[in-house]
Write a structure and sequence with these properties.
The chain has 7 helices and 8 strands. The chain is of the alpha+beta class and 202 residues long. A hairpin with a 5-residue loop joins strand 4 and strand 5. It is globular, with a radius of gyration of 16 Å.
């Protein structure tokens, strides 16, 4: 049975006051006191946040038997999280940090991608963070991997759908939906979505 209404996931990226309080407290631990984030490039800010999330003892991956996506404040308090919660926290940190550094336009270029990796006969649900640069390149951050995934060059057809096709071919990854704070865009039919889960192989 489907536990989640995936079409409504974007509401979790619409930050409450409690979410912002928890994010700002975490950002104060990621960046040294007094650091002027506007002196860093937008990509350096994101890189530092990603490196903290995958290396800090505060956060770890934990398998969840039920696919339940948490609000940011709850996820930060818990710390042991499934991939979608790690992705939501990491993307939200990036957004808040970029906005505070004056990079509001760049912050709006972040999204989550949920889909399925296929390796031999195994299918594994997963959630990634995507960032589109000013030149149309896409950078993918994997919330459970310390490596930055490949940087994808800009395409003549710069649409998200074209990018996801390119990404799918490179990584055997089928995107099911992508998410910004304003909307969730579903890329598959209702039956495929009903059988989707971000928490495990299926």
């Amino acid at each position: 049975p489907q536990e989640m209404d995936y079409g409504e996931v974007h509401h979790l990226l619409q930050l409450t006051e409690a979410d912002r309080t928890a994010l700002n407290a975490l950002l104060a631990r990621i960046f040294p006191e007094g650091m002027d984030l506007s002196q860093l490039s937008s990509e350096e800010i994101m890189r530092r946040i990603h490196n903290y999330m995958v290396s800090s003892d505060e956060f770890s991956y934990e398998y969840e038997p039920i696919d339940r996506w948490m609000r940011v404040a709850e996820a930060i308090e818990r710390g042991s999280l499934d991939c979608e919660d790690l992705a939501i926290v990491e993307m939200s940190l990036m957004r808040v940090a970029l906005e505070s550094a004056g990079y509001s336009e760049e912050a709006s270029h972040l999204s989550l991608i949920a889909g399925v990796f296929t390796e031999e006969n195994n299918r594994l649900g997963h959630v990634l963070i995507a960032y589109e640069t000013d030149s149309g390149e896409r950078v993918i951050f994997n919330p459970t991997d310390s490596e930055e995934m490949e940087r994808f060059p800009s395409l003549e057809d710069g649409s998200s759908a074209s990018f996801y096709r390119q990404f799918s071919q490179a990584y055997n990854f089928e995107a099911y939906f992508y998410v910004t704070p304003d909307y969730t865009t579903v890329l598959v039919d209702d039956d495929a979505l009903a059988h989707f889960s971000a928490h495990s192989a299926f």
